[in-house]
Amino acid sequence: MTQTRSLIDENGKRTDGRTRDQLREIKITAGVIKNADGSAFIEFGMNKIVVAVYGPREVHPKHMALPDRCVLRCRYHMVPFSTDTRKNPAPSRREVEISKVMREALEPTLMLEDYPRAAIDVYVEVLQADGGSRCAGITAASVALADAGINMRDMVSACAAGKVDDRIVLDINDTEDKEGDADMPVAYMPHLEQVTLLQLDGILDEDQFNQCLDEAVNGCKMVYEFQRTALMQKYFGNETELKEEQ
Ligand code: ADP
Question: What's the whole-model pTM score?
Answer without folding.
Answer: 0.95
